[in-house]
Design brief:
Length: 235
């Protein structure tokens, strides 16, 4: 196993894992899922589950700072949405980073953008949940091995930075990377529909990982807790 993968797995194992039961759809308040196409595919509007799915294909963390031009910000958009709904949104889940990697946005810039989005959400009184970036698939042939491996390594590095940001700021986070990845750090094939997008099964597993986190933050104060598949430290 690549040393960097082992280090990340050890890091994840050192965080606090949350062994909470699965949440039923009926027990959560309205929640907005923001992010790129992985968010769009992962969380369809579920029956009896008040989730507003606002993933946008091709989006980066920079775009989500102001998704509809210089104004409004994404939080302004939620505020406007809430003003006309009997069941207002109380929680924001941010699934972002895949396109930052493909577009070579520096990790520091991505984390800085996430910090701004977090501050805006908290200033408006919303619960805020982060996720790690989902893994990419293994290369389909030898010629693409270096490219796919580089993407995996960049994903690992960005996820480590997102995890650290969540811990430093007391933000709940769902480790979707470990939910979908195998021991080699690439996505398990059955979890994916193509190189970077999850399949129906992968989406189901993401939803089952998100719901307990949403339920928890809506019934407790926001604090750093890592939700998702527990990992083992591999020497």
């Amino acid at each position: 196993m690549d040393r960097r993968i082992a280090v990340l797995l050890c890091l994840l194992a050192s965080f606090i894992l949350a062994p909470f039961p699965r949440a039923s759809a009926q027990t959560i308040q309205c929640t907005a899922i923001w992010g790129d196409s992985t968010a769009l595919l992962s969380v369809p509007d579920l029956k009896n589950c008040p989730i507003a799915n606002w993933g946008r294909a091709g989006s980066t963390s920079s775009l989500w700072l102001s998704p509809y031009g210089t104004s409004p910000t994404y939080v302004d958009f939620i505020n406007t949405y809430n003003s006309s709904r009997k069941l207002p949104i109380s929680t924001v889940v941010l699934m972002i980073g895949r396109n930052d990697i493909t577009q070579k946005i520096p990790t520091a810039t991505t984390v800085a953008n996430i910090s701004v989005m977090y501050a805006k959400a908290k200033a408006s009184g919303y619960h805020f949940i982060l996720t790690t970036v989902v893994p990419n698939q293994k290369a389909p042939n030898l010629a693409l091995t270096a490219t796919y491996t580089a993407t995996r390594d960049k994903t690992i590095a960005l996820n480590a930075a997102i995890l650290q940001f969540a811990q430093d700021n007391g933000i709940p986070i769902v480790d979707l990377y470990s939910v979908l990845a195998g021991a080699d750090g690439f996505a398990i094939p059955e979890n994916m529909s193509d190189d970077i997008h999850q399949s129906g099964l992968g989406s189901y597993r993401i939803v089952q990982s998100l719901l307990p986190a949403i339920q928890y933050v809506q019934n407790n104060s926001d604090t750093f807790i890592l939700f998702g598949k527990a990992t083992q430290c591999v020497q």
